[in-house]
Amino acid sequence: MDDASMSLRDKQVVAAINRRTGAGLTATGRALFGKLGGAIYAEWPDGRPAVVTRFLGPHVEARRTAAILDHVRDRGAPVPRHELVVQVDDEVYFVQERLPSAPPQRLSPARMEAIVAVNDRFADALADRPEVPPQAAALADRREALGGYSARGRRVLEKIVEVHQEEPEGAAHVDLVHIDLSGANVLFDATGAATGVVDWNLGAFRGDRHFALVQTRFDREWFVRAPDADPIETAAAARLDEILAERVAPAVLRSYWAQWMLHHLDRAVRTAPPEVVDWHFDLAESRLA
Q1: Do 215 and 186 touch, CB atoms closer than 8 A?
Q2: Which Gene3D superfamilies does the annotation name (predicted)?
């Protein structure tokens, strides 16, 4: 990539990392995709490719996340090695290995099955790491904005609370959970096989890996609801619904949807236009029924 693909800020970040660590990185470009601001492509002095991403949390949490990911990577999990964790002013950055991948394509039902398959490789990955925070710690329980938004908002909130109260006692899962498992955060090879999961910039958690797939399905709703929705993308979302229904008990799945919808509705009622809030409500009502 040429310099036009990078911002001055990208170059400044890499320069600051070099000053603090002596890494000698050279900024080479920027990822085209990435829900949390994309990634800076870089290169080590010996020519190895690297990726620089911002971690959305404190330095101590970033170091914990990097240690967990390196632990599971050494045991075969498809995640990048995190080579540096660097504080730059008020921000924290990862310098990690750049995993090979093919150019991104639209998400088909077959690619959705590949996402499920690569996520399955996180099963029991944290059986020997009981100190890793549980998945429930990843999502803040914010109810005030939703309850005060409208009568419909209060009804949905009441339903979420009801589902929480009915949540069944389940097994103590010890899977590695990616809290933002979107299609953009999964790498594929030229055959369509998923080869890695990246962008752990919200942390790494312990729990049921299927909890992450509910977020994957929520993310696909943006594509399903688009005015020019792609039938292939819509079919991919439907395939994931089938997989979740096959694998997760109905009461547990409703509980997972309740947690995710509270998280997303809190943001939507505070920041999104009314038409987006409405489809969030539609989705919550259908999944919690």
Answers
A1: no
A2: 3.90.1200.10
As a whole number, mean pLDDT of residues 135-161 equals: 92
Determine what percent of the chain is predicted with pLDDT higher than 70. Answer: 94
| 109-288 maps to CATH 1.10.530 | no
Domain residue ranges in the chain: 3-97, 109-288
- CATH number for the domain running over 3-97: 3.30.200.20
Measure Cα distances from 226 to 220, 287, 288 in Å. Answer: 10, 19, 23
**Please, are residues 245 and 144 in contact by the beta-carbon 8 Å criterion?**
no
Alpha-carbon gap, residue 121 to 123, rounded angstroms: 5
C-alpha closest to that of 14 among 56, 34, 44: 44
Q: What is the mean pLDDT of residues 159-178?
A: 86
pTM above 0.90, yes or no: yes
Amino acid at 140: A
Tell me if residue 71 falls in helix, strand or coil. helix
List of residues 6+ apart from 63 with CB closer than 8 A: 85
Distance CA 287, CA 259 (A): 11
Three-state secondary-structure class, residue 43: strand
